[in-house]
What we know:
Layout: H1 2-173, H2 175-183
InterPro entries: CEP128 (IPR026652)
Region (Disordered): 1-41
Protein name: Centrosomal protein of 128 kDa
Amino acid sequence: QESKHEEMTSANRQLKMEREVHQQELANLRSELQNAKSKHERNVQELMKLLKQQKDDAEAQIKTLKMELVEEKNIVKTQCQQLEKIKIECDKLTEELTRNEEENIKLRWKCEFLKQELEKKDKQICDEEDHLRRMDEARLQFKDQLHHLEMEQESILTMIGSEIDAACEIFSRDSMEKFKVILS
Length: 184
């Protein structure tokens, strides 16, 4: 019985020692678990902090992009309006160019017509100048002829006058007899 009692005591001691070892291991495991939980908690907090930072950055970037998008839309809207104005102005200028080209064609026709008229009038003036020159030559010729005829007339009149003088002289010699003959 004593030996059994010693065996029991020895087994109890061994059991107690094993229990202490197990409790020590359990305490170590609990401590490791606590450390792991703490570490996990810290990692989760850091990760949450990082995610929050990334979320804030992403939201800020989204906000910036939205503002840029609004600005871009405004710029596009403004440019569309400017483009529309430019198109309208371009249409007006095209219309004006077409009108100017038509007027230019009309002016060219008119210019050509006036050029032809001017050439006709120039020819007519040349013809008239030629005619005037011929008329002037004819006038000078007639003037010369008139002068010649005047001189001829003067010489004829002088000759007639001298013949009349000669006749008068002849008549005056036998004037009474001839006067009677003339009177009769």
